[in-house]
Amino acid sequence: MAAALWSSIAPARSRPIARSCATQEESSSATVSVRERSRSASLGPHTGRDLSVKKPEWLRQRAAQGDRYSELKESLGALKLHTVCEEARCPNIGECWNGGSGDGAHGIGTATIMLLGDTCTRGCRFCAVATSRNPAPPDPLEPENTAKAIASWGVGYIVLTSVDRDDMPDGGSGHFARTVRTLKELKPEILVECLVSDFRGDPEAVTTVATCGLDVFAHNIETVKRLQRIVRDPRAGYEQSLGVLKLAKASKDGLITKSSIMLGLGEKDDEIKQALDDLKAAGVDIVTFGQYLQPTPVHLTVKEYITPEKFDFWKEYGESVVGFRYVASGPLVRSSYRAGEFFVESMIRSSREGSKK
């Protein structure tokens, strides 16, 4: 999907979602049926439920609530807009929409909106989104209508993402650019992140989005190099994704770039360190780590539930050793997790000022 939005994917639903911000897996019963045991045993080397790997307590999350959350949810319903946050049942929806939680709440509400429909032209093995070689054409008025709706909300940071659209000549890049430009005209102060596909590596499509006025260009490598062919659609690729990020960074002075990695797929520490080095070499500023969660038994098996302490290690390693400007790392972290938190907002505004000098 476009965004290859990464995170763990949501269960299949009536309306599929972009892959990057996926969701918690459905809570499984302590008692596994004989049917599931039989099915999981026949699905092959990379899929099926591993009954020996139990979902830990730290992946449980409270139901979303809060005044801003309630207001935004009501507005979305009235405007008939869909967010990855809701469609994927993201565990962080309340925290992001309310602008944080606890003493560190920053007050910058964040939401992630899907563009270009709900059907992907690719079939990554971690993602439960519906696929088709010929999805329905996108709504030609979507960029303007979406921008007007977002401008009417109280959010200070918006993430735009989509499914992959290999059926479109420009991969949907023009659609993204129109949405961003219109939104910036209506609300110049809003911060905009675009979590996009690799556009088949097309330099023109990448540049179109990178120079359209957005503040953060995000594209996910999803996993370490060795697991790319197992995890992602064959049309995606490690080097292609790094090339997209590198080109986007070079296309506009001051542009913040970002990528995400799922953990729990069988990757090794040395492979993660190499991926971080490669992202740094491509000019990436922000990296997020989160736990992969299997949406259905026919998707990739969770090999390991990474502990919160190990996620803390990767944050410290990424910032202190590799030198990323910011790393968000935790079991429930998703691609767009707290994208508009105060530190990131300050980083973006600083980059804006620097590019004007």
Descriptive report:
This protein is an alpha/beta fold and 357 residues long. It has a single domain, classed as TIM Barrel (Alpha-Beta Barrel). Helix content is 34%, strand content 11%. It has a 7-stranded parallel sheet, with helices on both faces. Strand 1 (110-115), helix 5 (142-151) and strand 2 (157-162) form a beta-alpha-beta unit. Helix 6 runs parallel beside helix 7. It is globular and about 55 Å long. The protein starts with 33 loop residues before the first helix and ends with a helix. Its main location: plastid. Residues 21-32 have a biased composition (Polar residues). [4Fe-4S] cluster 1 binds at residues 85, 90, 96, 336.
Summarize the structure.
It is built from 12 helices and 7 strands. The chain has 357 residues and is α/β, with parallel strands linked by helices. α5 packs parallel to α6, α6 packs parallel to α7 and α7 crosses α9.
Features:
11% strand, seven-stranded parallel sheet, disordered N terminus
